[in-house]
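W.,

You were right to be curious about this one. When I first looked at the sequence I had no strong expectations either way, so I just let the prediction run and decided to look at it fresh. Below is the sequence, 575 residues in total, followed by the output.
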Amino acid sequence: MKLNRKIQIIIRSRWLFVIAFQGLILVIIFCCFYLLSDYSHLASWYLKMNDGFYRREHWKDSFFTSDTKHKGNLFCVLGLIISIPLQFQLIKRLKNPGGLLRVQFSRWDVLVAGLCVLTGTAAWIWGYSLVHQGFDEVFSAVNCASLPPFQTLSYYMLPNNHVLFNLLNGTLFHFAGDKVFTGKIISLVCYWGIIVVAFAWLSGIIKNRLLLSIATVVISLQFPVWGFGFQARGYALCSLAEWSAFFALLHYINTKISRWLYYYVLASITGYLCVPVFLYFHTAVLLFGLFRVICTRMPDPKFWIAQVSIMSVVFLLYLPAICFSGTKALAGNQYVSAQIHSLQQFHDKGIQMFTGYLGFYTSNFTANHTIDKVLFFLPLTLFGFYRNKMAMLCGFFYLALWVACIALAYVMKIYPIERTMSGHFSISLAFSIYALYLLLSKLNDIMRPAVIADMVLTIILIVLGIHFTLGDKANISFYLYDNDINLKYNLLMQEGINFIPKGSSICFSDECFYWYYQCKLRGDRVTKCMSGTEQYFVRLGSDPLPISYANKYVLVKTVFKHRILSVRYEIYKRN
């Protein structure tokens, strides 16, 4: 078999416009339905979808209030104003969807990329075995992915609802009882996607296939990419969206083929619908676009039209969440509300957050060594290769990534938490490897044989990969969510769940979702809808005890009190 033989894939863009056309029809129907229905009808209709969703009794008071309905009407009117002209434009595009997009690669590329994916899969299996289910991923699976699809799309109870990720999990695996496991499978597929896209981008730079494969594996072993690759959360999907948007955007710039912008737009919409914090990446792209305008003195209207299209579509897709959960659920929750109130505080918090960022970037959380900082800032050396167009583009993109992050943090008065920057870390690491490759390539001009640079870079990358692997294993349980997953799991099982006899009927309050999930896995008869006939009732100390339960149940055990959490769980047994 000739491994150098080229394989060509032809990608048609028409399907994108067909999906967009159908999506806009659904948006128009939703807006009309919402506008023509009164508050009481909508509330009744929504509550009938599910009898036991998270904080159901507080939904009308905290989320879908009369004020939410009033503002939702205005947003739906705006949605119609945006949707109808867009629909006419799509009809025109469907008649002439544009040319084909041709992608070429060799059989060698397929073989090497496949080996990288297999290596990544082995790393995924290893990581999966190191840590139990986290509270965040269980919350996401139990309270978001298990809802009817429309409620998953519209109920933004906490930032834990990574909307697109949970929608995929609940729709594709509707039949599955364990949505945590199926969510991990989705993240595995996204992890594969990151490996493939990173390989594809690096293959245009590094021609030595051994070096290319090692560099790709190193990227796949970086703590946030590897760690969230086996978590039932949307971070791997968001990182894949960032990588795909970056890849498509650079291809558009280098080839001037506007069809690459379609896929950049698709990747950006995917990122936004997964986690709104994708705004940091998109702001970086806008800043990068300004850099290009200043440097080339060419406005590139197609690029800016694409940005407007992204924001318009994202607004339309978030309409259900805005109209049924309110704007405060998305823009006023504790993770995006202002926490910094002075310039000094902004500086001090920035230094603290940079330490955390550096830990995620280098898988080193115990000490911030000088070499870690050098690796992080190494992409700035790309500006030294001013005759290399790709180096300059990557240098400006790296600068835009982190300048936009700081600028947005200053405007919003809050820094993004480390795990939301996973895509930033991954792309920045690729830039560091690229910068190191260019710097070492200079050795080939003065040393013989010319393979010295490749040998040195190979050794450096192998050492870095080993460093990542050791750091990953040591830190996976605590630093994914800044709390010890395995410790909480072990204590909960030993002190709480194992106290309840297997096979018991158990009811849980809203904040006992982790108990609900673990008891369901071991075969207990579990429910979140209280009937007062269950043998046991478990609640978080801050959750209200139903009045009807006061005389029926007696407190038999308290879990976590004065231990690893400031809260406590209470186990009640029926008299």
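Here's what jumped out at me. The radius of gyration is 25 Å. And, maybe more interesting for your project: The CA atoms of residues 82 and 312 lie 7 Å apart.

Coffee later to discuss?

I.
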